[in-house]
Structure formats: C-alpha cells, structure tokens
C-alpha cells in the first residue's frame, strides 16, 4: 500500500514547518536542555529501535523519466493510460454511413448549393483532393446499442485537414482541424434513441497552414495534395481517464520544470510516481484510475473538475488567461479560406463557452466579423449572444490586424475609424485596446493615433522574435513622437498562441521584465490560423495549473473569467496612483522581417497609389457635394477604403503571403482603382470639368494644399510654343492653366556630351554629370558645393545575395551587406533634349535574364520650387534570392538620418555603434529619406518604395527582392520605379515634405471646359506655418446626407479636415472657409467633437486659428 503511505505523507506534509514564511521555521535554539539530555525527562521516541529494511535514496532522474511511460503512445501504450481513454469505438457502416459530394473547380459552395447535389457513398480510407478543393460529407449516424448508456459520446473525424460540422438544417456547429488536433464533436444526447441521425462535414483540402509540400511550412503550396479520411467513428470517452491524463500531465510538468532544488519539484515527482503505481496496482481498473486521481489531488487540490477551482480567492492571481485564435486574414491561404476559418474557429469557441463557464475569448479584426455576418449569419448571431453575456470579447478597434510600417497616416486612422465604427454599430461598443500580437514592428505615431481613436492600451508580442536585442520591458508606457502615450503589455510567455502549458504559466513570472512595477501578465492561449482557438485541453490544463498554485504553490496563480480591459484597467489604476512604469519613446523597431519593406513591389505600389487616389477623390467629392446636385459617394468610398485596409493586413502588404493572395489583392486593387477613377471623373464633372477635348486649351488640377509650379508635358503629341513639349503649370490649389514659356521667362535646361561618355545636364541651379549611367558629380550652383561624395557614384545599382536564415519573403539578414556587387552599365545616350527637360538613358545588365533601364532627367528650375534629379527606372527582374538597391553616396556628415513616417519624421542612426544601432541596418521610410548636416542636406524621394538604409554618408534605396517562399514568383517581371535626388540648402524642412507629396502625384494637363468651378477650390484653405499639412478633406461620416445609417445621423453637413505638424515643432495656422460655417470643433479621429474653437468672420469668410504641438495630428470638423 505504498500509494496510501505517499498520500498520507503528502497530506501531513508539514508545510508550515519548512515554509520560510512560517513563524515556526527557525531552528530551535540549541542548548535548551532537552537535546541529548536524560531520556527519562522526555517522552520516549516513536522510532523503532531497530531498522527492519534498507531504504535507498530515490534517483530523481530515473523516476522523472519514467513518468513518460504512463501517457506515451510507444511500446507501453497497450498497458498504460492511453489504452483507457475510450470505452468503445464504432465506425462500421451500419452505424456510420458516409456519402460525399465533391464540387468542381475548387469552388466553395454554400450549404444550400452543396446539399442540393447528389451524394455518393464513400468510406474511411478514401482520399480527397486536390489542394484547395472542398468536399461535402453526409453522415448518417446510429448510436450502437452497447454505447447508448455511455457517459460521453463523441464523433471523431480526422482527414488531416480542416472541416466544419453542420447540422441538417444548415447551421454550422463547430470546426475541425485534423491531424489529431481538434477531431472531436460531442454527439447530442438526444441521438441516443437507436434511430438514424444526419449531419454534414464540409472538408477543406488544406491544413491549418495551407498546403505546404512538406514539413517546411513556408514553401510554396503544392497544388496536388490529397488527404485520406482515416477516422470517422463514434467514440465513447472515458472522462475519468481523460481527466487523469491532464492531472498527470501537469504534475509531471511540475516534476520536470520546477527548479530541481525546490521541494515542490520533488513532491511532484513522488506524487506522479505514486499515481502510476496506483494504476498498476489496480491493473488499470476504473477504480485505480479514480485512486490515481485522488492521489493527484494531494498536489492539485480537489476542485480541478470545474470552474470552481478559480473561486478560491483571486487576490494574488497574477496571470490572466485569455483565449485567442489569431487568424491571419490571408497568408498561406487566400481570403476565401479565411472566411471559413473564421466560422470554424469562432463557432468552436461558442461551443466551448457552453461547457467551460470560465472561458473568455478575445477576438479582433472587424473585417473578419463582417465576413462572418455576411456568410455565416447564424454563427454571427451565436457570437453576438456570447458577446452580450460578456464571454466573447471583440477587441482591437481596427479593421484588420494591419501592418504599421507601410500604411500612410491616413490609412492608420482609417483602420481605427472603420474598425471602431463597425464594432460600435454591431456590438454597441468601441474598444480601448489596440490588439496587434503579430505585426512586424510598430511605427512611432501609433500611440497618438490610438489615443485619438479612443484607445489607451496596446498589446503585442512580436518583439520577442527580435534576433539581436532583447526588448527590456513587459509592461511599459509607449510614447509617440508628439508625447502621447499608451499602456503597453507584451506577455512574458512570449506567445499569442500558447498551448496553456504549465511552462507558459511559469514563464509568465520567470520572463516578466517589469516586476519592479507590476507582477501581472496576460497569458494568451489558443491555436491560431484555423487551429480554432483554445481547445478543451487548454482549459483543462489551466484548471489544474490553478489548482496546483492553490494547493501546492510556487506556480503563479492563473485566473480566468476576466477581460483584457480588466487587466489594463488595473495597470492604469496603478499608473494613476503612483506606479512609475518604464517608458519607451519612439518606434518599436522589430529586429527581424526587414525584407517586408520591399517584398511584393506591385502590392506596395498599389497601396501608395490607392492612398493618393483616395485622398484626391474624397477632397473632390467633398467639394462637389457642397455644390448641390451631387451625392457624396459614401458607399463606394467605403468599399475602396475597406479594400485598401484589408490589403494592409500584416502578411499581405508586407509581402509574406503565397501567390494566390497576391492574385486576390491584385484584383481588389484593380477594382479600387477603377472605382476611384469613376468617382474622380464624376466629381470633376460636377465641378464643371470637361470629359473630352473641347479646344479650349488645357488645365491641370492641383489638389495639394499648397501652390505648385511644375514643368508638365503637353498631352498627346501637342507642342507648346518655343519648340518645347512642356509648359509651366503654376498656381494655387485648384485649377491651373498651363503657360507656354519662352527662354527669357524661364531659363531652360541643357544636356551635352562634355567628354566622350560623360554627359552634363544643367539648369539654373544644378549641374549633373553622368558617366556610364551613374552621377559622378552633382553640383549645387547656388550653394557652390558638390553634393556627391568624392569618388562616389549616385544612382549606382547594387545587387546583394539575399538568403536569410529562414523566413525568405520576410527577412533580409545583416550579412547580405557583405555580398554587395556593383552593376556595370553600358553606354549612356541622350534620350531627350527639350528646352525645358533633358534626359539621358542607360541600360544595365543584371544577369542573362534581368536588366535595368534608367532615365535620368532634369527639368528647368522653377523659382520657389525644389529642383531635383529624377530617375525613371524600368526593371526586368528574374533573379533568384537577390536584392537590388540603388545607392547615393553624398557629401554630408551626420550620425543620424531622417525618414518620413506617418505624420512625422523619425531619426535613426547612420552608424553601428551598439547592437541597437546596428540592428537598424535596413529601415522603413515613406515618400522620402533625408541626410542633412548644418546648412545643407539631401533628400531621396520615391514613388512606391519603403525600404531604406543610411550607412555613414551612403544612402541606399531598396528596390526589389527575389524570395522564393512562400511565393515562388514574388516580384518576377517588369517594374517601373521613380525616385529622385533632391539637394537642399539649409535644414530638412517643408520643401522636402511637400516634394514628397508632389513627386507621388505629378500635375497632369487635361482638356479645359472653360467652365471649371474655380471658386469651389477656394472654399477651404489652410494658411500659416508651412509645417502644417492639410492631409485629408472629407465629409463627416454621420452627416445626414452622407451617412449609411449604421450609426446615428448628425444634422446638417460637415467637413472633416485632418491636419498634422510635419517637422517637429509648435506651429500656428488658420483654416479659412468661404462656406457658411456655423461651428468648428476639434475632434478625435472618430469625429467626436471634443473642443469647440472660436470662429471669426472677416470679409464674408470664416476662419479659425489653430495651433498644433510638435508632430500633432489634429482633426477639425466644420459644421455648416
Ligand atoms: Zn499573423
């Protein structure tokens, strides 16, 4: 009866005697007189005088290793607990009748479509495919006589792929993920009637991670994968044996993972061995299983079979468990599959909530909710019921879990505007936590944008993947460029898809880096990406972890039933009452996945173009809508934005998806462009613009909030006067007429071959020398200085070998820099020699299959405008794991370079002093990067690129990569890329900021109608500091003539203006309007009025003075 001894030993374990916190723990004072004194003075000892048998020291390692025997599938599985899991199984054709319908052409039909077809008999062992195909199974189930009174009946289905269980009425019940992961569906008790019952399983021929060819999950998917149905059976589960399995697992983990010098580890070892011994002594009988569980209670307590285990005081429960199912909106599968993953995963969670009252599940991404609402209304209703009960927690406030490096500022704002409005309209709530566990680095203005979108908390985890420096905080305040802050938490278990292991709970303390301030943490558990979120197993294990903490100790206490909001509420309360949390200023740079600034160039170009197009059409549509006779096309603009926001998902825009996803996004971007062009045309028509040539000359449209003067080509083959194909378009915001120029009005530009093979392009301000396709000299006439570093070659193409450690599409690794290879160009020739624009062209061979053709141009210098040398580059790119970049060595000295980021500028080192500096060997920029010293600087503009590096005085724009996984054809083909080198006298200032906008949106001449409504463009203007950028003009979301009714309408018309301070200092300005403005409000980005501003009127115009702090983003609502 050894086990009994153990049990009693355990129960009588004198924890108080040895506990360091016990008042009895100090040794007795020596010399008390009883030690070794006269025996007759004390009670006789109970220890027998003679030893009756020898007892050895237990060899801990052996007794620990032995524990595996009990639950392993190996040679002992017929003897151990594994053999007791199921009381009976049945898959014979009398009880499980299978038939199947296989839709053609990889289609994904609805339940109604699918079940209207004929189903053909099939059987276990049959195989189904190819990859991405769908198969609908009808299952006719009859519970066998001998299973009718079993405690728990489950249907087990496993074909190593994903599936969804549907009832006969066409309601999805729960998902299955295959491969032994989630294969069970609990059969309703009502089916124990001896009759036949019908249900369906929709099989998707893909696993959780798509269709990788082998174990390497990021390799491009295999198109012809087949899946064998190897399990379809009724199973009577021995719930007691299942429970013992989890008891034993957690105690075994305690034996293995608690510190070897802790008594808790020794005790776990002793208890677990005793449990095995009890099972063996009882020959694996049901009684012995119960006996083993009873022994386990000595370590786990007696409450682990229900949620009651969490009732024993939450005072010092410092780890809050929250379920999650991180579903990448597209990645190794297309959007169409994500829609099904969402329905499968979330219905699983609703199902678990029925059985586990402590379970809480946090779920982000408005887009996924919107899909569910549309395609799975009954699951959406089920979700809504659980949201109402407070168990299912929509979270995050954004449209998708988007990338934050690449989208524009306005895109980031819209992620929250569209996200928060969706959640508010469907669930009556906005979110306070921005939830972004997996995105690849976090841009510096996120805290400010969060605060403006009603959020004060930020959750992520990805920085634990840094492969150079260990991020120093778990819980801290993250501070934006303007000083705005959010409370940030990164779970110390370092995962957002924890399996709720003992180790995850333990690491919540051992890896917590902010213990000086607060010891609490989130444990975010559940299988991601179609794994369906938490399983019953996770919940069972956590109950045992908690039981262990209460009964035995040492493991931090997990609590359940709370929310992420509760967790952050507590942190904010502490911050408010004096706890000084550490701060982190500026971007949360991710030291990995640096290739994602460049991979999938077409997608990134489309993102940039869509953002500019949306900016323009919202502005034009706003002006047109105020004129009458034109309806603001809110629905189409919403569709465009939702498309752009979807494509900014954290695998899509960064370039880490499979090829299928880029087919999808390419199609969506094409729709966005088409819709946008229609809207633009309609709005321009409403504003009196011509649709075709009218013979009334040409006009350009300046939609930038500042005057512009540009040399623009005449449309078609028209030639302006003075022998030039170009005219000068110059004017304020609005309609600009093109002015033909004579040499006296505007000094021209020349090109000549000054020495064999050396060309000089010169205008009034710059002299450029080009030899063999590169700029060997760029001389600033006015500043009287050379811009190119001595011996340097600007515009030099370089190719690097690009083989990261693993994540091909994601990563470029630091060692790629050592493989730098200059590309040699062929001869340069003059391509254009117009009085107002000249250019030379050069072809450069990259390899036998790839080449670059670059046109370097210089236009006449226009007074008051930045002058730059433009590169228009066409690339045929067919490389294999290579990285193409272009270099600009400049004669500038600074230890920091500046990069445009959303609503501001971020400075990063140009050196590798520390590992933190060196980690930034490749960084993200938006429309420009700049290296300046006192008095002078150089900006590099681009029209579609995001990757950059400045190393010393060498500026390097990243152009194209060639990863072969997960998209084998990423970036293969033809590309056109524009960039420019813009030298400037004085510091980095608004010239560069404006040039970035202008360069991305050149003025274009179009036929004039002669009736353009010029004054419309004067109706709104911003004057004052050139640091203030009027970045967006749109109509109010809830204006009664605009609203789509998802939230309460607001009377009247209003105009929303988004203004930001772009250079990093306090700036004043005035908003002017010729419209009948009644009131002006400063708003948040959700367009809630926050502060009414003083409106003044002068000369029939109204105005309001504004003042922004450094890098502030401000939204103003003009109520008409
Ligand atoms: Zn992800």
UniProtKB/TrEMBL annotation:
Give the record's GO CC terms: fungal-type vacuole membrane
Question: Which GO biological process entries does UniProt record here?
Answer: mannose metabolic process; oligosaccharide catabolic process
Which stretches are tagged as biased composition: Polar residues? 1-11
Residues forming the Glycoside hydrolase family 38 central domain are 591-669
* Keywords annotated in UniProt: Glycosidase, Hydrolase, Metal-binding
Q: What class of enzyme is it?
A: hydrolase
Where does the record place Low complexity bias?
12-32
- Keyword Membrane listed? The answer is no
Instruction: Note the SMART domains from the entry.
Output: Alpha-mann_mid
Quote the EC number.
3.2.1.24
Q: Which reaction does it catalyse?
A: Hydrolysis of terminal, non-reducing alpha-D-mannose residues in alpha-D-mannosides
Q: Name one GO molecular function term.
A: metal ion binding
Q: Region annotation Disordered: residue ranges?
A: 1-56
Q: What does this protein do?
A: Degrades free oligosaccharides in the vacuole.
Question: What protein family is recorded?
Answer: Belongs to the glycosyl hydrolase 38 family.
Protein name, per record: Alpha-mannosidase
Which species is listed as the source? Penicilliopsis zonata CBS 506.65
Q: What's the source species' lineage?
A: Eukaryota, Fungi, Dikarya, Ascomycota, Pezizomycotina
């Amino acid at each position: 009866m050894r086990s009994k001894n153990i049990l009693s030993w355990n129960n009588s374990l004198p924890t108080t005697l040895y506990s360091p916190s016990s008042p009895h723990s100090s040794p007795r004072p020596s010399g008390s007189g009883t030690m070794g004194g006269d025996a007759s003075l004390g009670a006789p000892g109970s220890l027998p005088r003679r030893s009756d048998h020898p007892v050895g020291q237990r060899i801990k390692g052996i007794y620990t290793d032995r524990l595996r025997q009990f639950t392993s599938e190996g040679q002992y599985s017929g003897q151990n607990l594994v053999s007791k899991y199921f009381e009976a199984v049945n898959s014979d054709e009398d009880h499980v009748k299978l038939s199947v319908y296989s839709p053609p052409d990889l289609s994904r039909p609805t339940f109604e479509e699918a079940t209207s077809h004929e189903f053909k008999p099939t059987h276990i062992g049959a195989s189904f495919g190819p990859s991405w195909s769908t198969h609908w199974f009808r299952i006719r189930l009859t519970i066998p006589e001998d299973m009718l009174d079993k405690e728990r009946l489950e249907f087990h289905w496993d074909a190593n792929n994903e599936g969804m269980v549907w009832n006969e009425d066409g309601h999805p019940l729960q998902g299955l993920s295959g491969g032994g992961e989630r294969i069970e569906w609990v059969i309703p008790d009502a089916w124990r009637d001896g009759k036949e019952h019908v249900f369906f399983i929709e099989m998707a021929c893909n696993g959780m991670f798509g269709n990788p060819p082998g174990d390497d999950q990021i390799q491009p998917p295999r198109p012809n994968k087949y899946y064998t149905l190897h399990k379809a059976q009724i199973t009577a589960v021995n719930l007691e044996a299942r429970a013992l399995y989890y008891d034993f697992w957690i105690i075994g983990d305690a034996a293995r993972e608690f510190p070897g010098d802790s008594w808790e580890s020794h005790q776990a070892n002793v208890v677990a061995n005793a449990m095995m011994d009890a099972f063996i002594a009882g020959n694996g009988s049901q009684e012995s299983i119960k006996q083993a569980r009873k022994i386990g209670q000595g370590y786990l307590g007696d409450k682990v079979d229900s949620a009651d285990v969490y009732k024993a005081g939450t005072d010092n429960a410092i780890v809050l468990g929250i379920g999650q199912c991180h579903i990448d909106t597209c990645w190794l599968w297309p959007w169409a599959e994500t829609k099904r993953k969402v329905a499968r995963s979330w219905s699983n969670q609703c199902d678990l909530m029925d059985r586990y009252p402590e379970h809480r599940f946090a779920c982000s991404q408005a887009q996924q909710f919107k899909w569910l609402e549309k395609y799975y209304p009954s699951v959406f209703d089920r979700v809504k019921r659980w949201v109402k009960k407070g168990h299912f927690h929509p979270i995050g406030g954004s449209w998708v879990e988007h990338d934050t490096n690449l989208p524009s500022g306005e895109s980031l704002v819209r992620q929250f505007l569209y996200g928060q409005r969706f959640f508010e309209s469907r669930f009556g709530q906005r979110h306070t936590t921005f939830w972004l566990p997996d995105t690849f680095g976090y841009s510096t203005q996120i805290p400010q944008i969060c605060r403006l979108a009603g959020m004060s908390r930020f959750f992520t985890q990805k920085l634990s993947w840094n492969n150079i420096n260990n991020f120093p905080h778990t819980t801290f305040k993250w501070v934006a460029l303007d000083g705005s802050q959010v409370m940030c938490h990164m779970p110390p278990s370092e995962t957002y898809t924890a399996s709720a292991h003992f180790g995850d709970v333990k690491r919540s303390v051992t890896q917590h880096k902010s213990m000086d301030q607060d010891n609490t943490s989130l444990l975010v558990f559940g299988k991601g990406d179609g794994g369906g979120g938490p399983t019953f197993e996770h919940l069972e294990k956590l109950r045992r972890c908690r039981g262990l903490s209460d009964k035995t100790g040492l493991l931090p206490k997990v609590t359940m039933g709370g929310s992420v909001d509760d967790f952050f509420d507590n942190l904010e309360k502490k911050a408010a009452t004096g706890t000084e949390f550490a701060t982190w200023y500026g971007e949360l740079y991710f030291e990995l996945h640096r290739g994602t600034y460049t991979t999938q160039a077409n997608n990134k170009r489309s993102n940039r173009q869509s953002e500019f197009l949306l900016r323009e059409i919202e502005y034009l549509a706003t002006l047109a809508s105020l004129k009458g006779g034109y309806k603001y096309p809110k629905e189409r603009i919403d569709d465009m934005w939702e498309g752009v926001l979807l494509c900014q998902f954290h695998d899509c825009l960064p370039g880490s998806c499979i090829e299928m996803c880029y087919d999808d996004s390419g199609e969506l971007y094409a729709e966005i462009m088409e819709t946008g062009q229609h809207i633009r045309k309609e709005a321009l028509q409403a504003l009196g613009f011509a649709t075709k040539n009218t013979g009334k000359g040409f006009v350009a449209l300046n939609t930038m909030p500042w005057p512009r003067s540009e040399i623009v080509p005449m449309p078609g083959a028209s030639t302006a006067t003075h022998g030039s194909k170009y005219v000068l378009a110059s004017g304020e915001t609005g309609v600009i007429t093109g002015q033909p120029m004579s040499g006296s009005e505007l000094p021209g530009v020349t090109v000549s071959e000054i020495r064999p093979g050396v060309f000089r392009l010169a205008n009034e301000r710059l002299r450029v020398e080009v030899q063999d396709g590169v700029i060997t000299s760029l001389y600033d006439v006015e500043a009287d200085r050379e811009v190119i570093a001595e011996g340097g070659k600007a515009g030099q193409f370089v190719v690097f070998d690009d083989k990261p450690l693993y994540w091909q599409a994601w990563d470029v690794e630091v060692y790629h820099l050592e493989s730098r290879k200059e590309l040699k160009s062929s001869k340069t020739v003059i391509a254009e020699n117009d009085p107002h624009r000249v250019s030379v062209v050069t072809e450069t061979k990259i390899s036998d299959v790839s080449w670059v053709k670059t046109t370097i141009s210089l236009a006449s210098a226009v007074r008051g405008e930045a002058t730059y040398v433009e590169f228009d580059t066409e690339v045929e790119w067919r490389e294999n794991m290579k990285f193409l970049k272009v270099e600009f060595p400049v004669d500038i000295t600074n230890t920091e370079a500046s990069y445009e980021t959303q609503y501001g500028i971020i400075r990063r080192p140009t050196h590798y002093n520390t590992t933190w500096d060196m980690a930034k060997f490749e960084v993200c920029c938006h429309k420009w990067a700049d290296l300046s010293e006192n008095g002078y600087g150089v900006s590099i503009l681009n029209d579609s690129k995001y990757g950059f590096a400045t190393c010393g005085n060498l500026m390097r724009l990243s152009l194209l990569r060639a990863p072969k996984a997960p998209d084998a054809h990423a970036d293969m083909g033809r590309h056109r890329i524009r960039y420019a080198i813009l030298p400037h006298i004085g510091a980095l200032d608004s010239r560069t900021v404006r040039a970035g906008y202008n360069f991305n949106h050149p003025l274009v001449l179009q036929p004039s109608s002669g009736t353009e409504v010029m004054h419309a463009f004067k109706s709104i203007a911003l004057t004052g500091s050139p640091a203030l950028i009027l970045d967006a003009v749109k109509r109010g979301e809830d204006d009664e003539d605009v609203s789509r009714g998802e939230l309460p309408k607001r009377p009247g018309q209003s105009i929303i203006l988004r203004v930001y301070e772009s250079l990093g200092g306090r700036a004043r300005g005035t908003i002017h309007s010729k419209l009948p403005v009644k009131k002006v409000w400063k708003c948040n980005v959700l367009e809630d009025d926050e502060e009414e501003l003083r409106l003044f009127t002068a000369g029939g115009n109204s105005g309001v003075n504004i003042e922004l702090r450094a890098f502030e983003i401000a939204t103003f609502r003009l109520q008409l």
